[in-house]
Amino acid sequence: MIAKVRKAVFPAAGLGTRFLPATKAQPKEMLPLVDKPLIQYGVEEAMQSGVQNIIIVTGRGKTAIEDHFDVSFELEHLLETRCKKDLLATVRAVSDMIDVSYVRQKEALGLGHAVLRARELVADEPFSVILSDDVIDSEVPCLRQLLDVYEFYSAPVVALMEVPPDAISAYGVVDAEPVAHPGGQNRLYRIRNMVEKPKPADAPSNLAIIGRYVLTPEVFRSLDSVEPGSGGEIQLTDGLKHLLRSRPIYGYRFEGTRYDAGDKLGFLKATVEFALKRYDLGEAFRSYLKTLKL
Ligand code: UTP
Questions:
Q1: Which of 7, 89, 181, 256 is deepest in the core (most CB within 10 A)?
Q2: pTM exceeding 0.90
Q3: What is d(CA 57, CA 67) in angstroms, rounded to the nearest whole number?
Q4: Domain architecture of the chain: domains with CATH
């Protein structure tokens, strides 16, 4: 029987330089979309996908993440005495939400290095990786879509997205062949190769890897064998390329909309779209936007 994916690793130790100065003393993962930090969207996606065990890879200056998922006695007491029942429920829901463990990445030596730091907590079982600055709005949670493929093929799966040529060099890009998959609607690929941040002319396709992965524990051995690249960084794509030599890896062009909330324009787009969808804000916000002379 195929091992169930119980754990989700959240690398959150990057420097977030694209969001400076906001990220000087505050982790990027705590920037709010409307009123919820980015990382909470990711954690909710994991829970809704049936993955309960959360492992967050943190770095320097990231204590706000730990505080966010912890109980805040003072705040709860204050809300209780002021009879703010709704707010109290919202605050409690966050700390009740997850079983969470933390591990530190002392230096930001790349996404692959951050995933390696979770090795002991993951142990010898399949696991998922969620990059919380990729916020995905979809009917079926993106991670759940990948898990369905994993459960069918018992092999690692990465999320893919079509990207236009002028943006492709910001991503890991796959060379892949389509695979017929029951109910898959031409979304499934078997990956032949991957290239990290290619020039548009060198990109093997328009399919980019985005921040959702279901991986098997052999990836740790692959990451171990990866030589650090520029800046001493270990890239996850290089680890996956190494793993490809011994195992098939699938890519799934997920259904949904992905926002790159680690980038200012992507963050603004997500903020507007999420605010418009809110039952308590959407109408007023829409009316306001209509008054703007654009
Ligand atoms: P990014 O490529 O967005 O890098 O990382 P970054 O440092 O967070 O942000 P910029 O580019 O400087 O603005 C993708 C994900 O990998 C994590 C980040 O926290 C983010 O979730 N990461 C990256 C680590 O955990 N450790 C690293 O060494 C690098």
A1: 7
A2: yes
A3: 14
A4: 7-152+211-250 (3.90.550.10)
